[in-house]
Design brief:
Mean pLDDT: 81
Strand order of the largest sheet: 1-2
Oligomer: single chain
Structural class: mainly alpha
Low-confidence stretches: none
Helix content: 25-40%
Shape: rod-shaped
Distance between the termini: 84 Å
Number of strands: 2
Radius of gyration: 30 Å
Strand content: 5-15%
Largest sheet: 2 strands, antiparallel
Length: about 150
């Protein structure tokens, strides 16, 4: 059996937290406590893009068909490289180290790959012009890409 001193120690060990929890439960501060309910107002999405580049040519004003745009994929030595975003054509020839054949973003050269840019996807099936199915976040990313080149 336990002696009296041990019982007193165990009694305090159990009573002290119970007293504290009871006090916290029944003693409410007089100031308002912020609600933990979900907020209805969403924070604006932040841009993940770098600052605008000075070494990129301005957008092209000339109309191009999809077939004409395919000619500007940089596969021919010394050829121009165009990328279209949301229907606007950009000359990225000076960035052949990124958009040239075999490079990381070559999938977008010579086409409008708006959907893939918005999704941050390098899959060939995503490098298409139709971006109507993008959610709000992906549309923001696509707008950032367009602003980056503009």
């Amino acid at each position: 059996m336990l002696d009296l001193n041990t019982l007193v120690i165990y009694g305090f060990a159990l009573a002290l937290p119970a007293a504290y929890l009871t006090y916290r439960h029944y003693h409410r501060p007089s100031q308002a406590v912020p609600s933990l309910a979900p907020q209805t107002q969403q924070k604006p999405l932040k841009s993940i893009m770098q600052a605008a580049r000075e070494d990129l040519a301005p957008p092209k004003d000339d109309p191009y068909t999809t077939d004409e745009l395919k000619k500007y994929d940089g596969t021919a030595p010394g050829s121009l490289i165009y990328v279209a975003i949301k229907g606007t054509i950009f000359d990225v020839t000076r960035k052949a180290d990124v958009y040239g054949p075999g490079r990381s973003y070559a999938i977008f050269a010579g086409k409008d790959g708006s959907k893939g840019l918005g999704m941050s996807s390098l899959k060939p099936e995503h490098a298409v012009a139709d971006y109507s199915g993008l959610d709000e976040h992906d549309r923001k990313v696509l707008d950032d890409w367009h602003s980056f080149f503009s």
